[in-house]
Design goal:
Radius of gyration of chain A: 25 Å
Strand content of chain A: under 5%
Largest sheet of chain B: none
Order of helices and strands of chain B: HHHHHHHHHHH
Helix content of chain A: 55-70%
Distance between the termini of chain B: 43 Å
Oligomer: heterodimer
Number of strands of chain B: 0
Strand content of chain B: under 5%
Radius of gyration of chain B: 23 Å
Shape of chain A: globular
Largest interface: A-B, 104 and 105 residues
Number of helices of chain B: 11
Helix content of chain B: over 70%
Largest sheet of chain A: 2 strands, antiparallel
Order of helices and strands of chain A: HHEEHHHHHHHHHHH
Chain lengths: ~300, ~270
């Protein structure tokens, strides 16, 4: 067998060749526990959600009592009532994702390329990106509330620079919500871009410069395309949680910044309107999947995982 | 020639930009840490003066330490189980060609592309229809579920980077495939597995939305903070948040120093 594998993987064959695996059952054995778990606690619940979204109230029953039905009208009602919140969620999520990309890319570049060869600095900077997770993100969102409060230095500075009218506020505004979203999901943008840039061969950049490309041209034609897989997964990992988030809009926003996650949460808990909450969840999930599929197709990096 | 001038501007701009980005990331943490020293009384929103009392008695506020212990328990179980399940899947996906591969990939990808509210609502709908009372168990189930995919992706990147020739060399030296795996492949995978475990733990420890749906009366640390936000968060919560941040930093610095020392010895 060793001879067979040796021939099969001679030096000319390149790294794409995988070792021969005769026992195919091995793969299923490795997959079975994890995929069974996901089947039981992801697929089945999503199906349960679909079923719940078609329920109707029990006639003459109490609040929160529903019976199985095929009431597709739930979707029409939910969408016509909560269309603005749904659109607002996507709008906020898109702005936050673009902002996080603009902030996260230079960060990832500094860690992956500039700090290359300095393992200690690189490690420290990476930890600073991840460590905020350990200070609960709710605590940090409340810190934002304090930072953006009327008497804070940020507001004072913006007023002094006339970027904000003298009586302008940031508390309970859309700006506060979007900046909170950007902040909270920034690590999810930075880390995948870092992973892509870390594998980047610096000689490619040097080659671009040797061919008289300017800095920006080299970036546009060499660095950015090579880091695209990281940019794609970073934008997805930021956009998806941001569009479903409600913590930022609850803590930093007001009644005109309500996002769809907040509606789903309150339909579920405050009014026990399970079918509407379920219908909105299904709509959110399907819309995101459609957007993600279109985005991944367009950016041409199908090998995401 | 023309390019070098601009390049220099770019060279200087990147560190400045990155420094500003880090500032953005760290200012709220500085606030959190500063307010852990606030002589706050009940509501910790306005600065009232410096004190060490909160640090001297981090469990002084009712329930705050119980919530922390709950989070650590959930995080540990979720990390261990999701790391094992996810690593097995990653090994299968990279090293085997099999029928249903695309389906398996999709099943890993979907939980990551579903917002937390939807995951939380879906699981709660299932628990309610099975008449299972939400609590510690349901939170652990939910956390394992959303951590698995992230473990798979992290470990997969590492497995894909391994040279299969190493394992073949072991086979050529008459190692059984079991020995080759445990003596050669597994040690090389350890850093990737540890990174995945760290990611799983931090995701679990910081999760609020899914937990909020599936926890009933059970309270984790983020849930404690969120619930108390309406009537004022006790400064002890800031102490715990700051301490966790410091511990994470120190742990990684320790590992860095340790590996650097080992590298030098070689």
């Amino acid at each position: 067998m060793s001879i067979v594998t040796a021939i099969g993987h001679g030096p000319g064959n390149g790294p794409a060749v995988r070792p021969l695996r005769r026992a195919r059952g091995g793969a299923y054995l490795l997959l079975a526990p994890g995929l069974a778990y996901l089947g039981l606690f992801f697929v089945v619940p999503v199906v349960a959600l679909l079923v719940t979204s078609l329920y109707v109230p029990v006639p003459g029953g109490e609040v929160g009592q529903f019976q199985p039905a095929f009431e597709w009208g739930n979707y029409v009602d939910a969408l016509s009532t909560y269309w603005p919140q749904l659109m607002r969620s996507f709008l906020y999520a898109v702005i936050a994702t673009v902002a996080a990309l603009l902030i996260g890319y230079p960060m990832a570049y500094a860690i992956a390329v500039r700090a290359r060869g300095k393992p200690f600095l690189q490690g420290m900077l990476l930890v600073l990106v991840i460590a905020p997770f350990f200070t609960s993100f709710i605590l940090r969102t409340i810190a934002w509330k304090q930072i953006l409060a009327d008497e804070s230095f940020v507001v004072a500075a913006l007023r002094a620079l006339a970027l904000l009218p003298p009586d302008g506020r940031l508390t309970a505004t859309a700006i506060a919500v979007v900046s909170g979203l950007t902040y909270n999901f920034l690590p999810f943008m930075t880390l995948p871009i870092y992973a892509s840039l870390e594998r980047l061969d610096v000689r490619m950049i040097e080659a671009g410069q040797d061919l008289y490309a300017s800095g920006p041209t080299t970036f546009r034609r060499v660095t950015l395309p090579l880091s695209m897989p990281g940019v794609v997964s970073g934008t997805l990992l930021t956009f998806i949680p941001a569009s479903g988030d409600f913590v930022n809009s609850v803590l930093l926003g007001n009644t005109t910044t309500t996002m769809i996650g907040q509606v789903i949460d309150s339909r579920f808990f405050k009014v026990s309107d399970y079918p509407t909450a379920a219908a909105l969840s299904v709509v959110l999930m399907v819309a995101i999947l459609a957007l993600v599929t279109a985005y991944v197709r367009r950016s041409g990096t199908e090998e995401l995982l | 020639m023309n390019g070098t001038g601009r390049l220099r501007i770019g060279d200087a701009l990147i560190p400045v930009f990155a420094a500003l980005a880090f500032l953005y990331l760290l200012v709220p943490i500085a606030y959190t840490v500063a307010f852990s020293f606030n002589d706050a009384g009940r509501t910790n929103l306005i600065w009232r003066g410096f004190t060490l009392d909160n640090w001297a008695d981090p469990c002084g506020a009712p329930q705050v330490c119980a919530a922390l212990v709950n989070s650590l328990k959930v995080g540990s179980i979720a990390t261990v189980v999701s790391t094992i399940l996810g690593t097995l899947i990653a090994l299968a996906l990279v090293r085997y060609r099999f029928r249903g591969r695309a389906l398996a990939n999709l099943l890993i990808f979907l939980p990551m592309s579903t917002p937390e509210v939807v995951l939380g609502a879906a699981l709660l709908a299932q628990f309610l229809s099975l008449r299972i009372n939400p609590g510690f168990g349901t939170v652990v189930i939910a956390h394992i579920m959303f951590c698995i995919s992230f473990v798979v992706v992290t470990v997969k990147a590492r497995v894909a980077g391994l040279d299969p020739k190493l394992e073949e060399a072991a086979a050529d030296l008459y190692a059984s495939s079991w020995q080759a795996f445990w003596r050669v492949t597994f040690p090389l995978l350890v850093p990737g597995i540890l990174a995945a475990a760290l990611l799983a733990f931090s995701l679990s420890f910081d999760d609020f939305i899914i937990t909020n749906f599936n926890s009933g009366n059970f309270t984790t640390f983020p849930k404690f903070v969120y619930v108390s936000a309406t009537r004022g968060i006790p400064p002890q919560a800031n102490v715990i948040g700051s301490a966790m941040f410091a511990i994470a930093l120190l742990l990684v610095v320790g590992v860095q120093v340790f590996t650097a020392a080992r590298r030098r010895r070689r």
